[in-house]
Amino acid sequence: MIPAHYQFDTFHGKRIHLGVTGSIAAYKALDLTRAFLHLHLQVGVTLTASARKFVTELSFGALGADPLYTDMFTAGANFDHLEPSVADVFIVAPATANIVAKMAHGIADDLLSCQLLAYPGPILVAPAMNPRMWAALATKDNWNILGQRGVVRIEPECGSVACGDTGQGRLAPLDEIFIHTLAALSPQDLRGRKIMLTLGPTREYFDKARFWSNPSSGIMGASLAVAAALRGAEVTAITGPVDIALPSMIRRIPVVTAREMFEAAADIFPSQDIGCFTAAVADFRPPACPTGKYKKSGEPLSLTFESNADILATLSKEKKSWQQTIGFAAESQDLEANARLKMDRKNLDLIVANPIDEPGAGFAAPTNRVVVMDRLGRQESWPLLPKTEVAWRIWDWISMNTP
Ligand code: C5P
Question: What spacing in Å lies between the alpha carbon of 215 and ligand 1's midpoint?
């Protein structure tokens, strides 16, 4: 399934056209179609003759894909075989060596190749084939030609393929194809910006088996990271220990403790345009256990915690005039006043505040209700929204208000 933090309402109603060719991976195109329909995109499909040996137009139609195309010569009188030209993006998944070759050389000998040749918009190609076919010099040359023409190329992954061979040739994961499709549909208003994010919790071990942490899910930070990457930014995510997917277009630096997160952020931030600090960093760390593991003795365990450095405050104080920092504030009272104080105290450009004790907002929820304020005195209160929508609006704010 496609993770919730990859799903942005902004794409509702966009039209995509999916070309399916004759690979055993054709069945995966059904899941891809479902994922797009789930996001309320309109999905048209063209199946080649060989694709129809593996999957049928009935399956795509039953899911809700419309229009469906198969053969150039069996259509009704009003049939416009180049109709996909009105789609916002054209994806070929899975793409065989054959369709890659035909696209590279402008061959238009069936319906899909005609549609692709005539299509004026962005094209994505995700091949699936036998590893020896993928490695063939002819395929490599054809693949390079597509790259030179600006086709978005989603390379197959390595592993075992249906015929028993092992190597590169498996269709890329569906969430990668999904995210590249959304990127092709996104404004590229953050292109050229380098954005670093911290996200998730940190863990502070007090012996080899136990740690002090918090239930941060990382969803808010991951939504921000994905939204920024879709909009063209070069994104680095420093992630605390949390099981959250990020697309391969995001550089991921996994850390565990607050100190590791600090070191990674301090190393990367000087080269960044924007630092966005969503991590729920542990403010304190326990001392190291002298024996490796505390034994149960029936006696209370008493430890003195030390303060961890505030990553955001430290890096924000040192930032250059062209750098911006975004902080988060989970508040239990006087939300706006406390958030504004925090923005000033930590020298932030933007702060996103949310009530800590409201149902549907905060730590582990998929939604959030936030108040956003910036250093120029602008302030907005947003209703309860999916975190992906909050993320999209934060980048709208940054994109509109900074050059
Ligand atoms: O002061 P408070 O913890 O409420 O501030 C929250 C903001 O500061 C968040 O953006 C969080 O990521 C960041 N922070 C940090 N390092 C800490 C504590 C908080 O970067 N040690």
Answer: 15
Residue 163 falls in the annotated catalytic set: yes
Name, in order, each residue with C-beta under 8 angstroms of 245's C-beta and a sequence gap of 6 or more: 3, 5, 6, 175, 222
| Confidence label for 39 from pLDDT (cuts 50, 70 and 90) | very high
Check pocket membership of 348 for ligand 1, CB cut-off 6 A. no
* Pairwise CA distance, residues 140 & 138, whole Å: 5
pTM of the model: 0.95
CATH of domain 194-400: 3.40.50.10300
pLDDT tens readout for residues 263-278:
999 999 999 999 999 9
Summarised one tens digit per residue, pLDDT across range 344-360 is: 999 999 999 998 888 77
For 9, which DSSP code? Answer: G
For 148-258, strand residue ranges (E) read 152-153, 157-160, 166-170, 194-199, 204-205, 211-212, 234-239, 251-254
Pocket test for ligand 1, best of 257, 263, 277 (most atoms within 8 A of CB): 277
Segments of the chain assigned to CATH 3.40.50.10300: 194-400
Atom of ligand 1 nearest to the CA of 351: 10
* CB of 282 closer than 6 angstroms to any ligand 1 atom: no
Peptide bond into 187 cis (omega under 30): no
Superfamily for 4-185?
Flavin prenyltransferase-like (3.40.50.1950)
Among protein residues, the one with the nearest Cα to ligand 1's atom 5 is: 329
From-to residues of CATH 3.40.50.1950 in the chain: 4-185
Ligand 1: distance of its center to the CA of 19 in Å?
46
